[in-house]
Amino acid sequence: MDDCIFCQIAAKKIPSKIIYEDEEVIAFEDIKPQAPVHLLVIPREHFSSLNQVPAGKEALLGKILLVARKIAEEKGVAESGYRIVLNTAADSGQEVLHLHFHLLGGRRMTWPPG
To answer: With a threshold of 0.85, does the pTM exceed it?
Structure first.
């Protein structure tokens, strides 16, 4: 999608601090971090939200979570704890219409989140 900022980041048309990438998944630092560690993990393939991910993409969704875990380990927050956040649609606070998982860590999280 030409107008999707995350698609443009994945295509390297917009600069970003990329932490991880392979042929299916890319992870980069959030430009408005809410924690000492705040990254976004996205599929390269465009889905507006979890609601648009078709059946048959279970392996991709699982891979995204495993990439997030790997990054949490590399960033040193796996043992102390981290949060994975997936917002879906307007009422959840989703601002960019491209499926993305927030990886947050490096500080104590509160509950409920917001």
So the answer is: yes
